[in-house]
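Treating backbone geometry as a discrete language has practical consequences that deserve illustration. In the encoding step, the backbone of a single protein was reduced to a row of integers, each denoting a local shape. The amino acid sequence and the backbone structure tokens for this protein are reproduced below.
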Amino acid sequence: MSDALNVMGAKNKAWWFIIAHKKIILQELDESIPYGDATELSLPASMLRSKIKIGEYQSHPCYLIVASDASTFKCGSYQNARILLGKIDETLFNMLGRALQVALFYQTHQYCGQCGEKMQRVEWEIACHCSACAHRCYPRISPCIIVAIRKDKEILLALHQRHYQSNEEIYTVLAGFVEAGETLEECLQREVYEEVGIKVKNIRYVRSQPWPFPHSLMMAYIADHDSGEICVDEDEIYSAAWYAIDNLPALPNKGTVARELINQVLAECDSF
């Protein structure tokens, strides 16, 4: 009988992404995503009625609950999702990103952008529908490029204005949003030239990474310096320079595609 109860209990277990004001509840003991039966986590019935299934992880359902306030529940307390970067499995972090983006989508699409009437949530897919004009919306995804640039045995790293102004001196690679009617490669060349005044060649695609801050999809590349001297756009970049692989400044956290690109370029430089 105990084995049967254990099986039944396992079937009821789920991952719970409870979000309020862009923060997520984490279990206090190990700062992890709440996992378990709703009863054992003491989730209020009022919250469970609004749960949204957003996928599965390790054969268990993942539910999003958008809370109206940041009250603390017995299963944990609200934290900034960024603290989980590099601390949890990438697939689970991507599910967290999905939860954050879906929560933002429902928050920002309560009214129809076409006629202004109240939108209704579609039950069988993640979408909002306007019964007045039949306009339907899906979560926004903003494509952007991120690129690490190599010059012989050096890498270009920049201190962005947002990091400098927040006293967070992290040196990272270049990135930017894709504009309408632009290919990814055209975006990469434009952003690099606009931000640091150089031209690149030998553009190589590496991989993509969903980035839920707030709703980006990063397409990661490595490129080689072609021509030009560094001349920064001071609106975007505080400083930028070529760094030798044995003399690097503070770098982005592990778990980010920016750090992965930097590590890959360093490995290429080391074998060059």
In short: The radius of gyration is 22 Å. The CA atoms of residues 205 and 251 lie 21 Å apart.
